[in-house]
Write a structure and sequence with these properties.
The protein is of the alpha+beta class. It has one domain: Arc Repressor Mutant, subunit A (Orthogonal Bundle), CATH 1.10.10.10. It is built from five helices and five strands, in the order ββααβααββα. A three-stranded antiparallel β-sheet has the order 3-5-4. A two-stranded antiparallel ribbon has the order 1-2. A hairpin with a 2-residue loop joins β1 and β2. The N and C termini lie far apart (41 Å).
């Protein structure tokens, strides 16, 4: 496959593009938690152990920018923000589910449990 450009960056294959968008430690867990419901920032923060506020904010912004989540801000005091999956976000869950299932098989096979 020839190189291609997406959002001003050159990619060498489509897997590289997708993994950059959903890879890393936190993006898949954020998307996974939004699979069945809309959540507020505080709910996500409480539900994802070990993630810092700065990292959660950064990852949410990137996922929104890449079209995987919607961010809805309500003009109330205190401020209220809700996050939900877009159609693209729902679509990528199929891949995340497959990767998750493969990871679970690896853990079981290698006895990598704590």
């Amino acid at each position: 496959m020839p190189d291609f450009k997406y959002n001003g960056k050159i990619y060498y294959n489509p897997v590289q593009l997708v993994m950059e968008q959903i890879g890393g430690t936190w993006k898949a867990p954020i998307l996974w938690r939004l699979k069945n419901k809309t959540m507020r920032y505080g709910e996500l923060r409480k539900d994802i152990p070990h993630i810092s506020d700065k990292m959660l904010t950064t990852q949410l912004r990137e996922l929104e920018q890449d079209g995987y989540i919607n961010r809805k801000v309500f003009a109330v005091v205190p401020p209220k923000t809700e996050y939900s999956l877009t159609e693209q976000g729902k679509d990528i869950l199929k891949l995340i589910t497959s990767i998750r299932n493969y990871g679970l098989k690896m853990i079981e096979k290698q006895d990598l449990k704590k």
